[in-house]
Specification:
This protein has 401 residues and is α/β, with parallel strands linked by helices. It contains 15 helices and 17 strands. Strand 10, helix 8 and strand 11 form a beta-alpha-beta unit. It is globular, with a radius of gyration of 20 Å.
Amino acid sequence: MRRPLFAALAAALLLSGPLAAADGKPLRIGILNDQSGIYADMAGPGSVIAAQMAVEDFGGKVLGRPIEIVVGDHQNKPDVGSAIVNRWIDEQGVDVIADIPTSSVLLAVQEIGRRKDKLVLASTGGSSDFTGKFCAPTGIHWTYDTYALAAGTGASLAKDGPWFFITADYAFGAALERDTAQAVEKGGGKVVGRVKHPQGSTDFSSYLLQAQGAGAKLIAFANSGADQVNAIKQANEFGIPQSGIKLAGLYLHITDIHAIGLPTAKGLILTQGFYWDLNDETRAWSKRFYQRHKAMPTMGQAGVYSSILHYLKAVQAAGTADTGTVVAQMKATPVDDFFSHGGRIREDGRMVHDLYLLKVKAPDQQKYPWDYLELIRVIPGDEAFRPLNEGGCPLVKAAAN
Protein backbone atom coordinates (compact mmCIF):
# COMPACT_ATOMS: atom_id res chain seq x y z
CA MET A 1 0.00 0.00 0.00
CA ARG A 2 1.04 3.58 -0.63
CA ARG A 3 2.02 5.53 2.44
CA PRO A 4 -0.39 8.26 3.51
CA LEU A 5 0.37 11.87 2.76
CA PHE A 6 1.64 12.78 6.22
CA ALA A 7 4.11 9.89 6.08
CA ALA A 8 5.44 11.09 2.74
CA LEU A 9 5.98 14.54 4.21
CA ALA A 10 7.77 13.04 7.17
CA ALA A 11 9.95 11.00 4.84
CA ALA A 12 10.87 14.15 2.96
CA LEU A 13 12.14 15.64 6.19
CA LEU A 14 13.86 12.51 7.45
CA LEU A 15 15.72 12.10 4.18
CA SER A 16 16.91 15.69 4.31
CA GLY A 17 20.56 15.99 5.15
CA PRO A 18 23.06 18.86 5.07
CA LEU A 19 26.17 18.45 2.97
CA ALA A 20 27.99 21.14 4.91
CA ALA A 21 27.79 22.69 8.34
CA ALA A 22 25.05 25.27 8.61
CA ASP A 23 27.32 28.24 9.26
CA GLY A 24 25.06 30.59 7.33
CA LYS A 25 21.69 30.49 5.66
CA PRO A 26 21.91 27.37 3.49
CA LEU A 27 21.02 27.28 -0.18
CA ARG A 28 18.70 24.30 -0.37
CA ILE A 29 18.09 22.07 -3.39
CA GLY A 30 15.15 19.68 -3.27
CA ILE A 31 15.38 16.38 -5.16
CA LEU A 32 11.82 15.23 -5.75
CA ASN A 33 11.29 11.80 -7.26
CA ASP A 34 10.16 8.20 -6.81
CA GLN A 35 12.49 6.72 -4.19
CA SER A 36 11.21 3.14 -4.07
CA GLY A 37 8.53 2.59 -6.72
CA ILE A 38 8.51 1.79 -10.43
CA TYR A 39 10.77 4.74 -11.35
CA ALA A 40 13.32 4.34 -8.57
CA ASP A 41 15.96 2.76 -10.81
CA MET A 42 15.92 5.51 -13.42
CA ALA A 43 15.81 8.33 -10.84
CA GLY A 44 15.42 7.53 -7.12
CA PRO A 45 18.50 7.33 -4.90
CA GLY A 46 20.76 7.57 -7.96
CA SER A 47 19.53 11.09 -8.68
CA VAL A 48 20.30 12.04 -5.08
CA ILE A 49 23.84 10.74 -5.51
CA ALA A 50 24.20 12.72 -8.74
CA ALA A 51 23.03 15.89 -6.96
CA GLN A 52 25.46 15.28 -4.10
CA MET A 53 28.30 14.82 -6.59
CA ALA A 54 27.44 18.14 -8.26
CA VAL A 55 27.45 19.96 -4.92
CA GLU A 56 30.71 18.34 -3.85
CA ASP A 57 32.40 19.05 -7.19
CA PHE A 58 31.30 22.68 -6.92
CA GLY A 59 32.88 22.94 -3.48
CA GLY A 60 29.95 22.61 -1.08
CA LYS A 61 29.30 26.36 -0.77
CA VAL A 62 28.13 29.18 -3.00
CA LEU A 63 28.35 32.89 -2.13
CA GLY A 64 29.55 31.80 1.30
CA ARG A 65 26.40 29.75 1.92
CA PRO A 66 26.50 25.99 2.57
CA ILE A 67 24.57 23.96 0.00
CA GLU A 68 22.11 21.38 1.29
CA ILE A 69 20.23 18.61 -0.49
CA VAL A 70 16.76 17.63 0.74
CA VAL A 71 14.95 14.61 -0.66
CA GLY A 72 11.26 13.87 -1.11
CA ASP A 73 9.43 10.76 -2.35
CA HIS A 74 6.40 11.93 -4.34
CA GLN A 75 5.11 8.34 -4.82
CA ASN A 76 4.18 9.34 -8.40
CA LYS A 77 1.19 11.30 -7.05
CA PRO A 78 0.69 14.99 -7.91
CA ASP A 79 -0.98 15.77 -4.57
CA VAL A 80 1.85 14.19 -2.59
CA GLY A 81 4.50 15.94 -4.68
CA SER A 82 2.74 19.29 -4.42
CA ALA A 83 2.41 19.01 -0.64
CA ILE A 84 6.11 18.22 -0.27
CA VAL A 85 7.16 21.13 -2.48
CA ASN A 86 4.87 23.61 -0.74
CA ARG A 87 6.25 22.54 2.62
CA TRP A 88 9.83 22.78 1.36
CA ILE A 89 9.31 26.31 0.10
CA ASP A 90 7.16 27.64 2.93
CA GLU A 91 8.90 26.02 5.90
CA GLN A 92 12.39 25.00 4.81
CA GLY A 93 13.36 27.73 2.38
CA VAL A 94 14.15 25.42 -0.53
CA ASP A 95 15.46 27.46 -3.47
CA VAL A 96 15.17 25.01 -6.38
CA ILE A 97 13.36 21.72 -7.05
CA ALA A 98 15.08 19.20 -9.34
CA ASP A 99 14.65 15.84 -11.10
CA ILE A 100 10.84 15.18 -10.88
CA PRO A 101 9.88 12.06 -12.85
CA THR A 102 6.16 11.47 -13.51
CA SER A 103 4.87 14.23 -15.74
CA SER A 104 1.65 14.80 -13.81
CA VAL A 105 3.76 15.62 -10.76
CA LEU A 106 6.17 17.69 -12.84
CA LEU A 107 3.40 19.85 -14.30
CA ALA A 108 1.90 20.37 -10.84
CA VAL A 109 5.29 21.45 -9.49
CA GLN A 110 5.75 23.75 -12.48
CA GLU A 111 2.68 25.70 -11.36
CA ILE A 112 3.97 25.96 -7.79
CA GLY A 113 7.31 27.24 -9.07
CA ARG A 114 5.55 29.80 -11.23
CA ARG A 115 3.35 30.98 -8.36
CA LYS A 116 6.08 31.09 -5.70
CA ASP A 117 8.96 32.17 -7.96
CA LYS A 118 11.09 29.06 -7.42
CA LEU A 119 13.20 27.35 -10.07
CA VAL A 120 12.09 23.93 -11.32
CA LEU A 121 14.87 21.89 -12.99
CA ALA A 122 13.25 18.93 -14.75
CA SER A 123 15.48 16.00 -15.66
CA THR A 124 13.59 12.69 -15.58
CA GLY A 125 10.07 14.11 -16.07
CA GLY A 126 9.40 14.14 -19.80
CA SER A 127 6.20 15.78 -21.08
CA SER A 128 7.04 18.27 -23.83
CA ASP A 129 4.12 20.35 -22.53
CA PHE A 130 6.47 21.50 -19.75
CA THR A 131 8.09 23.88 -22.25
CA GLY A 132 4.96 24.10 -24.40
CA LYS A 133 1.54 25.23 -23.26
CA PHE A 134 2.54 24.93 -19.58
CA CYS A 135 5.90 26.69 -19.85
CA ALA A 136 6.94 29.06 -17.06
CA PRO A 137 9.73 31.60 -16.57
CA THR A 138 10.82 29.47 -13.60
CA GLY A 139 10.93 26.12 -15.43
CA ILE A 140 13.91 24.57 -17.25
CA HIS A 141 13.78 21.18 -19.00
CA TRP A 142 17.20 19.57 -19.12
CA THR A 143 17.68 16.02 -20.32
CA TYR A 144 15.04 15.02 -22.88
CA ASP A 145 11.32 15.31 -23.58
CA THR A 146 8.64 13.31 -25.35
CA TYR A 147 9.08 15.26 -28.59
CA ALA A 148 12.80 14.40 -28.66
CA LEU A 149 12.16 10.70 -28.01
CA ALA A 150 9.68 10.72 -30.87
CA ALA A 151 12.08 12.57 -33.17
CA GLY A 152 14.64 9.84 -32.53
CA THR A 153 12.98 6.46 -32.13
CA GLY A 154 9.64 7.31 -33.74
CA ALA A 155 11.10 8.92 -36.84
CA SER A 156 13.72 6.21 -37.36
CA LEU A 157 11.16 3.37 -37.20
CA ALA A 158 8.22 5.21 -38.81
CA LYS A 159 7.87 2.88 -41.81
CA ASP A 160 8.44 -0.35 -39.86
CA GLY A 161 4.78 -0.51 -38.86
CA PRO A 162 1.82 -0.42 -38.90
CA TRP A 163 2.23 0.83 -35.32
CA PHE A 164 0.18 -0.02 -32.24
CA PHE A 165 0.68 1.91 -28.98
CA ILE A 166 0.45 0.38 -25.51
CA THR A 167 0.37 3.54 -23.43
CA ALA A 168 0.53 4.29 -19.72
CA ASP A 169 -2.62 6.11 -18.64
CA TYR A 170 -1.10 9.33 -17.31
CA ALA A 171 0.29 12.62 -18.61
CA PHE A 172 3.69 11.31 -19.73
CA GLY A 173 2.23 8.35 -21.60
CA ALA A 174 -0.30 10.54 -23.39
CA ALA A 175 2.37 13.06 -24.42
CA LEU A 176 4.78 10.34 -25.57
CA GLU A 177 2.11 8.60 -27.65
CA ARG A 178 0.94 11.91 -29.16
CA ASP A 179 4.42 13.11 -30.10
CA THR A 180 5.52 9.71 -31.43
CA ALA A 181 2.35 9.18 -33.49
CA GLN A 182 2.90 12.58 -35.09
CA ALA A 183 6.51 11.67 -35.91
CA VAL A 184 5.44 8.32 -37.36
CA GLU A 185 2.76 9.85 -39.57
CA LYS A 186 5.08 12.64 -40.66
CA GLY A 187 7.60 9.96 -41.65
CA GLY A 188 5.07 8.13 -43.81
CA GLY A 189 4.09 5.50 -41.25
CA LYS A 190 0.67 4.36 -40.07
CA VAL A 191 -0.89 3.89 -36.62
CA VAL A 192 -3.53 1.14 -36.48
CA GLY A 193 -4.46 1.26 -32.82
CA ARG A 194 -3.75 2.20 -29.24
CA VAL A 195 -4.69 1.03 -25.76
CA LYS A 196 -4.07 2.49 -22.30
CA HIS A 197 -2.92 0.62 -19.19
CA PRO A 198 -2.80 1.68 -15.52
CA GLN A 199 0.50 2.69 -13.97
CA GLY A 200 2.15 -0.24 -12.24
CA SER A 201 0.56 -2.94 -14.43
CA THR A 202 1.94 -6.46 -14.09
CA ASP A 203 -0.06 -8.26 -16.79
CA PHE A 204 0.21 -6.96 -20.36
CA SER A 205 -1.20 -10.05 -22.11
CA SER A 206 -4.56 -8.55 -23.09
CA TYR A 207 -2.90 -5.42 -24.49
CA LEU A 208 -0.42 -7.48 -26.51
CA LEU A 209 -3.27 -9.59 -27.92
CA GLN A 210 -5.11 -6.43 -28.97
CA ALA A 211 -2.00 -5.24 -30.81
CA GLN A 212 -1.66 -8.55 -32.64
CA GLY A 213 -5.36 -8.54 -33.50
CA ALA A 214 -5.10 -5.05 -34.98
CA GLY A 215 -2.53 -6.21 -37.51
CA ALA A 216 0.39 -4.31 -35.99
CA LYS A 217 3.90 -4.96 -37.25
CA LEU A 218 5.43 -2.76 -34.54
CA ILE A 219 4.25 -2.51 -30.95
CA ALA A 220 5.38 0.68 -29.22
CA PHE A 221 5.41 0.96 -25.44
CA ALA A 222 4.65 4.55 -24.40
CA ASN A 223 5.40 3.98 -20.74
CA SER A 224 8.49 3.77 -18.57
CA GLY A 225 10.31 2.16 -15.68
CA ALA A 226 9.10 -1.21 -14.43
CA ASP A 227 6.02 -0.97 -16.69
CA GLN A 228 8.19 -0.94 -19.80
CA VAL A 229 10.50 -3.66 -18.48
CA ASN A 230 7.54 -5.94 -17.73
CA ALA A 231 5.85 -5.25 -21.07
CA ILE A 232 8.96 -6.07 -23.11
CA LYS A 233 9.69 -9.21 -21.09
CA GLN A 234 6.13 -10.47 -21.52
CA ALA A 235 6.11 -9.71 -25.25
CA ASN A 236 9.18 -11.91 -25.59
CA GLU A 237 7.68 -14.65 -23.41
CA PHE A 238 4.69 -14.72 -25.76
CA GLY A 239 6.99 -15.01 -28.80
CA ILE A 240 5.85 -11.76 -30.37
CA PRO A 241 9.25 -10.71 -31.80
CA GLN A 242 9.72 -14.25 -33.12
CA SER A 243 6.44 -13.86 -35.04
CA GLY A 244 7.89 -10.95 -36.99
CA ILE A 245 6.41 -8.08 -34.95
CA LYS A 246 8.94 -5.49 -33.83
CA LEU A 247 9.00 -3.89 -30.39
CA ALA A 248 9.83 -0.26 -29.62
CA GLY A 249 10.55 0.85 -26.08
CA LEU A 250 10.02 4.57 -26.41
CA TYR A 251 11.52 5.51 -23.03
CA LEU A 252 14.16 2.97 -22.10
CA HIS A 253 17.07 3.51 -19.72
CA ILE A 254 20.38 1.75 -19.27
CA THR A 255 18.98 0.32 -16.02
CA ASP A 256 16.00 -1.08 -17.94
CA ILE A 257 18.32 -2.87 -20.37
CA HIS A 258 20.20 -4.23 -17.36
CA ALA A 259 16.93 -5.55 -15.90
CA ILE A 260 15.64 -7.00 -19.18
CA GLY A 261 18.96 -8.56 -20.21
CA LEU A 262 20.66 -8.50 -23.61
CA PRO A 263 19.18 -11.81 -24.83
CA THR A 264 15.70 -10.26 -24.60
CA ALA A 265 16.50 -6.60 -25.30
CA LYS A 266 18.90 -7.12 -28.23
CA GLY A 267 18.06 -5.06 -31.29
CA LEU A 268 15.83 -2.53 -29.53
CA ILE A 269 16.28 1.04 -30.74
CA LEU A 270 16.26 3.84 -28.18
CA THR A 271 16.91 7.56 -27.94
CA GLN A 272 19.00 8.92 -25.09
CA GLY A 273 20.15 12.31 -23.88
CA PHE A 274 23.25 10.67 -22.41
CA TYR A 275 25.02 7.31 -22.46
CA TRP A 276 27.77 6.49 -20.02
CA ASP A 277 30.10 4.91 -22.62
CA LEU A 278 30.08 7.64 -25.28
CA ASN A 279 33.57 9.04 -24.69
CA ASP A 280 36.35 9.44 -22.13
CA GLU A 281 34.52 12.27 -20.32
CA THR A 282 31.26 10.37 -19.91
CA ARG A 283 33.12 7.24 -18.83
CA ALA A 284 35.19 9.08 -16.22
CA TRP A 285 32.16 10.66 -14.53
CA SER A 286 30.05 7.52 -14.83
CA LYS A 287 32.69 5.35 -13.18
CA ARG A 288 32.76 7.78 -10.23
CA PHE A 289 28.98 7.52 -10.03
CA TYR A 290 29.14 3.72 -10.25
CA GLN A 291 31.48 3.54 -7.28
CA ARG A 292 28.74 5.10 -5.15
CA HIS A 293 25.59 3.62 -6.71
CA LYS A 294 26.75 0.26 -8.11
CA ALA A 295 24.89 0.94 -11.35
CA MET A 296 25.78 3.08 -14.33
CA PRO A 297 23.87 6.38 -14.51
CA THR A 298 20.70 6.82 -16.49
CA MET A 299 20.40 9.86 -18.70
CA GLY A 300 18.12 11.44 -16.10
CA GLN A 301 20.61 10.97 -13.29
CA ALA A 302 23.40 12.47 -15.40
CA GLY A 303 21.05 15.34 -16.21
CA VAL A 304 20.45 15.99 -12.52
CA TYR A 305 24.19 16.46 -12.01
CA SER A 306 24.57 18.71 -15.06
CA SER A 307 21.53 20.88 -14.31
CA ILE A 308 22.48 21.45 -10.67
CA LEU A 309 26.10 22.22 -11.51
CA HIS A 310 24.99 24.75 -14.15
CA TYR A 311 22.59 26.28 -11.62
CA LEU A 312 25.31 26.67 -8.97
CA LYS A 313 27.68 28.23 -11.49
CA ALA A 314 24.93 30.72 -12.39
CA VAL A 315 24.30 31.62 -8.74
CA GLN A 316 28.01 32.25 -8.28
CA ALA A 317 28.28 34.35 -11.45
CA ALA A 318 25.12 36.34 -10.69
CA GLY A 319 26.13 37.03 -7.09
CA THR A 320 22.62 36.18 -5.91
CA ALA A 321 20.19 33.27 -5.60
CA ASP A 322 17.28 35.42 -6.82
CA THR A 323 15.33 33.16 -9.17
CA GLY A 324 14.82 35.57 -12.05
CA THR A 325 18.43 36.74 -12.03
CA VAL A 326 19.79 33.20 -11.85
CA VAL A 327 17.54 31.93 -14.66
CA ALA A 328 18.70 34.80 -16.87
CA GLN A 329 22.31 33.90 -16.10
CA MET A 330 21.67 30.22 -16.86
CA LYS A 331 20.11 31.11 -20.21
CA ALA A 332 22.96 33.46 -21.08
CA THR A 333 25.66 30.86 -20.34
CA PRO A 334 26.34 27.81 -22.57
CA VAL A 335 26.30 24.43 -20.84
CA ASP A 336 29.80 22.99 -20.82
CA ASP A 337 30.39 19.67 -19.07
CA PHE A 338 30.55 15.95 -19.83
CA PHE A 339 26.78 15.94 -20.44
CA SER A 340 26.78 18.64 -23.10
CA HIS A 341 29.27 20.95 -24.73
CA GLY A 342 27.57 24.03 -26.12
CA GLY A 343 24.10 23.28 -24.78
CA ARG A 344 21.83 26.31 -24.54
CA ILE A 345 18.61 27.16 -22.72
CA ARG A 346 15.91 28.76 -24.89
CA GLU A 347 13.35 31.29 -23.74
CA ASP A 348 10.76 28.51 -23.34
CA GLY A 349 13.06 26.78 -20.84
CA ARG A 350 14.17 23.95 -23.15
CA MET A 351 17.88 23.07 -22.83
CA VAL A 352 18.92 22.20 -26.37
CA HIS A 353 21.70 19.64 -26.76
CA ASP A 354 22.58 16.63 -28.90
CA LEU A 355 20.74 13.35 -28.41
CA TYR A 356 21.81 9.86 -29.39
CA LEU A 357 20.05 7.13 -31.35
CA LEU A 358 21.32 3.78 -30.04
CA LYS A 359 20.76 0.07 -30.56
CA VAL A 360 20.89 -2.61 -27.88
CA LYS A 361 23.77 -4.99 -28.51
CA ALA A 362 23.50 -8.74 -28.87
CA PRO A 363 25.07 -10.74 -26.02
CA ASP A 364 28.07 -11.75 -28.16
CA GLN A 365 28.85 -8.07 -28.84
CA GLN A 366 29.24 -7.17 -25.17
CA LYS A 367 32.88 -6.63 -24.15
CA TYR A 368 32.57 -5.58 -20.48
CA PRO A 369 29.89 -4.98 -17.81
CA TRP A 370 27.22 -2.42 -18.79
CA ASP A 371 28.44 -2.44 -22.42
CA TYR A 372 24.88 -2.54 -23.70
CA LEU A 373 24.43 0.05 -26.44
CA GLU A 374 25.81 0.77 -29.89
CA LEU A 375 25.68 4.34 -31.23
CA ILE A 376 23.77 4.61 -34.51
CA ARG A 377 23.92 8.37 -34.91
CA VAL A 378 24.11 11.69 -33.09
CA ILE A 379 20.90 13.72 -33.40
CA PRO A 380 21.73 17.46 -33.39
CA GLY A 381 19.82 19.39 -30.75
CA ASP A 382 17.99 21.60 -33.22
CA GLU A 383 16.69 18.46 -34.95
CA ALA A 384 15.92 16.55 -31.77
CA PHE A 385 13.84 19.18 -29.98
CA ARG A 386 10.63 20.85 -31.07
CA PRO A 387 11.10 24.15 -32.94
CA LEU A 388 10.68 27.08 -30.59
CA ASN A 389 7.69 28.54 -32.43
CA GLU A 390 5.70 25.27 -32.49
CA GLY A 391 5.28 24.53 -28.79
CA GLY A 392 2.64 27.09 -27.90
CA CYS A 393 4.69 28.54 -25.03
CA PRO A 394 3.22 31.93 -24.01
CA LEU A 395 6.71 33.19 -23.13
CA VAL A 396 7.76 32.82 -26.76
CA LYS A 397 4.66 34.64 -27.97
CA ALA A 398 5.31 37.43 -25.48
CA ALA A 399 8.93 37.74 -26.59
CA ALA A 400 7.86 37.95 -30.23
CA ASN A 401 5.44 40.82 -29.60
